[in-house]
Design a protein that fits this description.
heterodimer; A: about 80 residues; mainly alpha; elongated; B: about 230 residues; two-stranded antiparallel ribbon; 2 strands; globular; disordered C terminus
Chain lengths: ~80, ~230
Amino acid sequence: MDTNKQAASGKSLWRNALALGVVAVIATALLTLVHEMTWQRIQQQQRRALHQQLGELIPAHKEIVFERTAEPAEP
Amino acid sequence: MDSYRNIFFDGLWQNNTGLVVLLGLCPLLAVTHTIINGLALGLATTLTLVLSNLAVSLARGIISPEIRLPAYVLIIATVVSTIQMLMQACWYELYQVLGIFVPLIVTNCAIIGRAEVFASRNTPLPSIIDGFATGLGFCLSLVVLGALRELLGQGTLFSQARLLFGTWGEHLQLTVFPHHPGFLLALLPPGAFIGLGLLIAGRNWLNQHLTRSRSQPAGGGPASRSAQNAT
């Protein structure tokens, strides 16, 4: 009788683990798909927000222009 | 059809998440500085409720009672993460304004509550309707509280609408009181508590009024009322 109970309990345990695993795999697949679809756009938005913040710190009329100077001649 | 109407009315009004069941009070009080903030979080919560209810209802055959809670949390977290990424991609500024309260939708008890009480015992269509009605009720309470606080605190309505609606949202902003000096209490957490209390009182008053008017017999004018009093 106990052996039957243990077998049923073990079966139920495996079934639950499998069900939870299936849900986890589907969830991970969905998140991966959405991440693949959006990560470039998110990076772009983050860069734009950063540029906006920098623009507020350094206004347009105080634009710093970096000019390339001639490389020093070797001795 | 009648049962669908009952489900809808129940989620929207009779058991409104924010005003009757009093779940999800943290975002309700913290985010509702403006209508737009409330509307954005309300829509995100509604979408989460609809999708998680649908997923739970579809998966109810394979999820046994022993693993239901971790499975529901996993489903809700996936839906919220998806919405979070989409918000970051499409409404980045709004996402920054709402901050931590977008990922915190996962911890909203109303969502797991509806999954446990309704979606796990019903077919997909009623579950979707229940999620939509519950979310809409929560969204409505967020928007009304946001409107109240914004109007009292800043004298405007729909300020920063461009965060949600883009460039044409700039035309939506209404300045109701042009020379409003600003009422800080309305924008601070105590103002949110007072506003919520007023909303709950208003909802209870309206509900009582509706129940009383329904219980009166048809054509019950002053004459019939005096006749009732006489008897």
